[in-house]
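During the reporting period the student researcher (J.K.) took over the structure-prediction task from the postdoctoral fellow and processed the backlog of single-chain submissions. One of the processed entries is reproduced below for the supervisory committee.
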Amino acid sequence: MSGRILIVDAVPTNRIVLRVKMLAAQFAVEACASSAEARAIIAKQCPDLILVNLSDPTEDRHGFCTALKADPNTSTIAIIAVGTADTSRARFAALDAGADDVLARPINDALLLARIRSLLRARSVTEELLLRDSTSRALGFCENRDSLANTGRITVITPEAAPMPELIATLNAGLGHCVVVQTASAVLRHNDEVHCADLLIIPAANPRDEAVALFSLVSDLRSRVDTRLASLLVMVPNGNPEAAAMFLDLGADDVVMQNALPQEIILRAKALVRRKQLHDALRRNLLDGLQAAVTDPLTGLFNRRYADHHLARMSEQSAVAGSALAVMMIDIDHFKAINDTYGHAAGDRVLVALAARLRDNLRAVDLVARIGGEEFLIAMPRTSARQAQGAADRLRRLVSQTPFDLGEAYAPIPVTVSVGVALSDEAGQTQPDTHLMCDLADAALYRAKSAGRDCVAMHLSAA
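J.K. obtained the following structure tokens:
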């Protein structure tokens, strides 16, 4: 896995040893002795991960980590604290300062590399989602992100659904949320509580005896639709770094030793919940942005951008199925007169009401889009010339037979539409050219207008 790693350590020997290990693992590496040098390197080219010795007595490295996490430009850089004392309080202080993990010397190489891989994977996802989010915002597709929830939805996976009262009490008190306890078999079945979990916690009491089952469980959770996006924290016995490394490589987001202080467990759980909720918010914004990009904001119908692409897919399916594809162009008659007489707000009400009539009176498989000011496109797969003619006449009557409400200021007014229809080869022998079909439907629409409006015209070859 590629990645840029910065080593910050005042002791030359420590820098050399870590640099050699990182280079052997095929990372790009820079090293420096002070926080000031580190800031200069970060300003020049931001690293993906920092290995920082927090035990340097000459400067405040905890403050250095806190400042990085507080700065939006550097907040996604992963930080592993090295060189701290191997105590629960030292680990908690490092995590509280912003470190993503803490590894005391002597550092287990397998665990160090597994932790780096895990953090780089997580940072890559965050960076990609943030980049897509910024693009959507630049295009005006996203609103401000919702503030993240203060509490998380937590599920503890135990061998039996009864459980571990001390751990559950600790989580309930520290996270301020009711924790769900379930067996592994229940979690692997579709389950609404698990489906929406922000964090899954696995207390791996004795992975040496149950290694295969636990490793398989972590891998399974990461691969299933219901649980693959949930954060995953595994609690492993102290003194088993190889198992911790394996859990990380199989997809766990974090590991914590079972003898850790309750405050450390809570701190790690909160960090994982925050990251999960951030990713969820960014994914929601991305979906909302995509929806905005293909939707007409006034009528809620698809726009021309979507219609062009979807028509191409419908054309491909039509050729495969050996069936005809019908395309209609619908235009409101004398729409300019409506705007000039009653105002643009009234014209908008007509557009919205017409869109609803069209959408509510077609099949789910049919495409309805607004492609211009008062022009709409309808595409109907598996439709014969007779069916297309009948559908066009039915829609025309639905418009003309019921007046349109303009609000309290005006009485309802009559509105009519003209419709042009083009049909692909009913034998389905060739893939329809959707651009040509739209042009032919437009030509038919022009003939309907010329014939006096409020009528349907079919392209001659499809009549």
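The committee noted the following: The chain has a mean pLDDT of 86.
J.K. will present the remaining backlog at the next meeting.
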